[in-house]
Design a protein that fits this description.
Elements: E1 3-9, H1 18-33, E2 41-47, E3 62-71, H2 77-94, E4 101-110
Helix pairs in contact: 1-2
Length: 120
């Protein structure tokens, strides 16, 4: 915990400072949600095919970045909202303008009570 997953259109891969974003998001998650630094784990998943509305996908006019942050239960709605807003602000600074419409979103959710893990 936290489990962070970032899905993004590969159209912005060269414009997305993933390392810098992950580092700053981990720092924010520690500061805002009282996570342990060593517990922050982030996976980036590029998407080769993004469809937006009725646009022809070949037009490459839109890109999507969606961040999901999974936390153990117990954070207040205010804490989750602050983390969400902070993550959106960080995205602004780590995805350069490429001339396409960028649709960025963040969701903070609670991990299910069944969540378990192991480290090797």
């Amino acid at each position: 915990m936290p489990q962070i997953t970032i899905d993004y259109s590969d159209l912005v891969a060269d414009a997305f400072d993933r390392e810098g974003f992950a580092r700053e998001l981990h720092e924010a998650t520690v500061a805002i949600a009282a996570a342990k630094p060593e517990a922050c784990k982030t996976q980036f998943r590029p998407s080769a095919y993004t469809v937006f509305g009725y646009e022809d996908p070949g037009a490459h006019g839109h890109a999507i970045v969606h961040v999901t942050i999974g936390l153990l239960a117990g954070r207040s709605d205010e804490t989750k909202a602050k983390l969400t807003q902070t993550a959106l602000e960080l995205l602004r600074g780590h995805v350069a303008d490429t001339g396409v419409a960028l649709h960025a979103s963040v969701e903070v959710r609670e991990l299910d009570a069944s969540y378990r893990k192991f480290d090797r």
